[in-house]
Amino acid sequence: MEFRKKNTGSRKIKKVSLVFSVFYITTVFGFSFVTFCNSKKTSLKEQLIDHKISTLMDTTELNQNGENPLEGNAEAIAKGAVHYSTMCSVCHGTGAQGSTGPDLLDNAWLHGNDNYATYNIIMNGIRLENMKMNPPRGKMPPYKNILGSHKILEIMAWLADQKSKLKENPDN
Q1: Rounded to an integer, what distance in angstroms lies between the CA atom of residue 122 and that of residue 172?
Q2: Taking each helix axis from N to C terminus, what angle separates 115-124 and 148-168, rounded to the nearest 10 degrees?
Q3: Does residue 164 sit in the same domain as residue 110?
Q4: Other beta carbons within 10 Å of 67
Q5: Residues 138, 135: Cα–Cα separation, whole Å
Q6: How large is the C-alpha radius of gyration of the chain?
Q7: Where in the sequence is the domain holding 13, given as residue range(s)?
Q8: How many domains, the chain?
Q9: Are residues 59 and 124 located together in one domain of the fold?
Q10: CB-based contacts of 35: which residues, under 8 Å, 6+ apart?
Q11: Residue 172: helix, strand or coil by DSSP?
């Protein structure tokens, strides 16, 4: 019987040691993992500041002739499609044919259909009292502080690409 008591005692010690070891390893791993992850992250405040700085430093604009320097650029068109789908499609529809907001692929733009007007509308928005749509269905918010001029020009490049495709194949 003494043999079993010793054996039972050593089993208890082994169980305690095993539990302690697992706890210790888990704690060390968890602490290391959290420390590693946090060292790679920046705070939300820092991310917002970085976004604001990059938006303010964005100097891409229409050229002197009112042409979009990104028009026809395949990479800009692809990025513009992504920006459009995340920021514009809710109001203007997934294919830009209109929803709450007007159709962007026709030529009947109430606030101007040239690059200057389009750029200005997206950058500065349209207040409800300035809406020419009858009846007005909501204001167009300004996107200059959200997107910045470069992303707005990418959206405009995508819209121009969509319009040219529509002219090439009017049945679609």
Answers
A1: 26
A2: 130
A3: yes
A4: 10
A5: 9
A6: 29
A7: 2-41
A8: 2
A9: yes
A10: none
A11: coil
The vertex-28 CA angle with 25 and 33, nearest 5°, equals 120
Residue from 79, 115, 80 nearest 96 by CA: 80
Sequence letter at residue 35? T
Residues 57-112 have pLDDT tens digits of 566 788 888 899 999 999 999 999 999 999 999 999 999 888 888 888 887 777 87
| Structure token digits, residue 125 | 């928005």
What value, to the nearest 5°, has the Cα angle with vertex 103 and ends 102 and 106?
Answer: 135
- pTM here? 0.64
**What does each C-alpha distance from 118 to 23, 72, 89, 111 come to in angstroms?**
62, 17, 16, 8
CA distances, 92 to each of 88, 95, 149 (Å): 6, 8, 20
